[in-house]
UniProtKB/TrEMBL annotation:
PROSITE patterns xref list: GUANYLATE_CYCLASE_2 (PS50125)
Residue spans of biased composition, Polar residues class: 398-411
Residues annotated as domain Guanylate cyclase: 12-126
Organism: Mesorhizobium captivum
Disordered: annotated span: 398-425
Name recorded for this polypeptide: Adenylate/guanylate cyclase domain-containing protein
SUPFAM superfamilies for the chain: Nucleotide cyclase
Gene3D superfamilies, per database record: Nucleotide cyclase, TolB, N-terminal domain
Pfam families (UniProt xref): Guanylate_cyc
Length: 425
């Protein structure tokens, strides 16, 4: 074999991650890590080993596993999810759920690691899966059908990141009652309902002022962040939903491409200190309205409006809020509207198309002004961290990591360190 030639083989790849890992860690870091360790020792690792799987790598909230047989991979996944469901029955707020994606494909092997589209597709399937669910590719479904006593649902084609063609997604109905019923020749039990899921599209700026675009995007992102605090609701990340910005597209297409049950869209008109927000929640399958409302408020009430929109969505989707979730949604990040406006301007610049020294300096100036107005407002600190990370990567300022920190935080060290918010990127 020629030197440097890639070593390839066919394998079944299982990708798994913990649902809401950031939220769990924010709530109870030590307890979450301890529970994950126990679940690995008692459920996950033994199942993988018993089905001849190899854990390729662990990634904090996830794992990549290789199997020689897709039958073994799917059997292990179903076994893990069934045992996780039994474990979570008495776990209450401490429940930990997994998403699992499985694909069969050609992989590139380098040492103990694996790469290639075979791996990437498994990761994309995992991201689409529901909490406690197993999503598999068409190739995997064809090979396990009639070999494993499970029910497989065709969820349609999905366009996913970095994969040239849409992939056909199949959902394994994870319920050990199915296996027992199949063995007895009985009809399968009724299927559990799908977990509510939502994509928040960028709100349309109808202010007649293109410079207000940052404000409309900021409101959309804040609603995404608030909805992400609800454990019983799957929320598509900003980077995925914002790909539809400026496009006229059928909501049913959005639902199919992102794999969600509902979509929120709306518009914002800002004039002086007044703002009008319209929002409508749409069933992504039928294209019908589930809820719609309009809010005419002062800018000082903007967080109240976001709170109301979030609660109306949760109520329309029949998701029950825990007291802790309700309190997190109601938390006001700042009472200084000018500081919030500066943060939104800085955030737009941070993730805008321009990546230059000038844009970096503008971001730092905006976030710094916001902090000066409200030192306890956490999100501008997050913005500064991202800005300095970009500077470190691009060497715009020519300063070292330690110089940046000492120059930026010198005036803040005596102040109370604010809690770190969960900003969805």
């Amino acid at each position: 074999m020629a030197e440097g030639r890639a070593h390839r083989r066919l394998a079944a790849i299982l990708a798994a991650d913990v649902v809401g890992y950031s939220r769990l860690m924010e709530t109870d870091e030590a307890g979450t890590l301890a529970r994950l360790k126990t679940l690995r020792q008692n459920i996950i690792d033994p199942s993988i080993a018993s089905h001849s799987g190899r854990i390729v790598k662990l990634m904090g909230d996830g794992a990549l596993v290789e199997f020689a047989s897709v039958v073994e991979a799917v059997t292990s996944a179903v076994e893990i999810q069934n045992k996780m469901r039994e474990h979570n029955a008495d776990a209450g707020d401490n429940a930990i759920w997994l998403r699992i994606g499985i694909n069969v494909g050609d992989i590139i092997v380098e040492g103990d690691d694996i790469y290639g589209d075979g791996v990437n597709i498994a990761a994309r399937l995992e991201a689409l899966a529901e909490p406690g669910g197993v999503f598999i590719s068409r190739t995997a479904a064809d090979q396990v059908r009639d070999k494993v006593p499970i029910n497989i649902e065709d969820r349609g084609d999905f366009a996913v990141k970095n994969i040239a063609r849409p992939i056909q997604v199949f959902c394994v109905v994870v319920d050990d009652r199915l296996a027992k019923a199949a063995q007895r020749g009985e009809a399968a039990p009724s299927k559990p309902p799908r977990t509510p899921s939502i994509a928040v599209l960028p709100f349309v700026n109808i202010s007649g002022d293109a410079e207000q675009e940052y404000f409309a995007d900021g409101i959309s992102e804040d609603i995404i962040t608030d909805l992400s605090k609800v454990a019983g609701l799957l929320v598509i990340a900003r980077n995925s939903s914002f790909t539809y910005k400026g496009k006229s597209i059928d909501i049913r297409t959005v639902g199919r491409e992102l794999g969600v049950t509902s979509v929120l869209e709306g518009s914002i008109r800002r004039a002086g200190n007044r703002v009008r927000i319209t929002a409508q929640l749409i069933d992504a399958t039928a294209g019908t309205h589930l809820w719609a409302d309009r809010y005419d408020r002062d800018l000082t009430d903007i967080f109240v409006v976001q709170d109301e929109v979030t609660r109306q969505i949760v109520e329309a989707l029949k998701v029950t809020l825990t007291p802790a979730e309700s309190a997190r949604i109601a938390r006001t990040p700042t009472r200084n509207i000018e500081a919030h406006d500066l943060f939104l301007r800085g955030w737009e610049a941070l993730f805008g198309p321009e990546k230059t020294k000038e844009s970096f300096e503008r971001e730092v100036a905006l976030f710094t002004q916001a902090i000066e107005l409200d030192p306890d407002y956490a999100e501008p600190y997050v913005g500064l961290a991202h800005a300095y990370n970009h500077d470190f990567q691009n060497h715009w300022s020519g300063r070292t990591d330690s110089q940046q920190l000492s120059g930026t935080t010198a005036g803040w060290r005596s102040r109370r360190t604010p809690p770190c918010p969960m900003r969805t990127l």
